Write the structure tokens for this entry.
Amino acid sequence: ASLHAELCCLLSDMLRAIRSSSSGSDSSSDSSSDAVSWREAALTLLFVVTLFLYLFTVADMYYTTKYFHFPLESFSTTVLVFVMFQLPVVLWLTRQRSLS
């Protein structure tokens, strides 16, 4: 669940960085535009790696839940985890969007 929150924050930062670099001045030199493209590539690579880690974690959680836990236990944990980890991230992202 924390990994998902990190993924959302990383995606938000990545989009903000790309948006700020594309709205910059067009009279920049070639070296600064190369640095921006390296930054975008690094952020995109980091996003892809985090996404794969997230998918592997989800697969591990699915099989652990399926074979080692009762259904009611899994459901109650899902609700509790959403309230503890996902709800604060959603509220933060909503607040950041309203501020910008």
User: Anything to note?
Assistant: The mean pLDDT is 78. DSSP finds three helices and no strands in the chain. Residues 17 and 23 are 10 Å apart (CA to CA). The first helix runs from residue 2 to 22.
